[in-house]
Amino acid sequence: MELQDYIDSGILELYVYGALSTEESVEVNNMLKKHPEVQEEVAAIEDALQQLAMGLAPFDPQKLLDNLLLKLNGGGKVVTMHRKEKSTRLIMYISIAATLLLLVGIVGLLNKNNRLQHEIEVVETQKRVLMTEIEQSNDKLVTSKEIINLYRDTQLLRIPLAGQEAAPEAHVNVLWDKEKNVAYIDAAGLPEPPEGMEYQVWSLTLDPLTPTSIGLLSGFEQSTSKVFALDNPNDTEAFGITLEPEGGSETPTMEQLYTLGAVGA
Prior knowledge:
Number of domains: 2
Strand order of the largest sheet: 5-4-7-8-1-2-3-6
Number of strands: 8
Oligomer: single chain
Shape: rod-shaped
């Protein structure tokens, strides 16, 4: 192959782009050592790509090639046929390189957009969590206000229940609205029940001693206020709370009597 045909074959452009195999690259390196013309051609291709990559001026392949050809022709204006062919080929390669750079830029923008979208989703999730926490805080505040109002209501009977042998440190307040037949059980002074067990509240008459269940403190662990409203239409003389198997018992387990208190005591 003639030297000029070798230069015009496009292998030097592929060499500069790093698209040759190891054997082909060795071949080009040998040609570079032997032929100054090959060295000049490679330098011209590298210069063209460097100007494109660095963005020294608006991309204009023809103008870039004109400058290259002027240098290659010693500053003259004579362009041979093989140089015109080379011009077309170089325009093609440089255009391909520009397209690749554009694609790299687009991919970079897409990746950046994906990161931004992910950050937006994270912020939205954090916002939803914050709103939920605010709503829960508002719910707790309302519950706290209701509890304060219960304790301030002079029409309600307040019955303190003291700890018994099963739990000497336990203590409970019952706020009984006799008009509405509702007993509010403030059970914050009770320990959390063991798994599979629940507290059961009993309305007691003393003579004869008769216990009547008015309900369970279900969901004790989940409750933040530990205040439970139970219907109590009974003529209650005392209230007691026992620890029973989940679901409650028909009669109180006296060995598990946690608190007890008489009305009007």
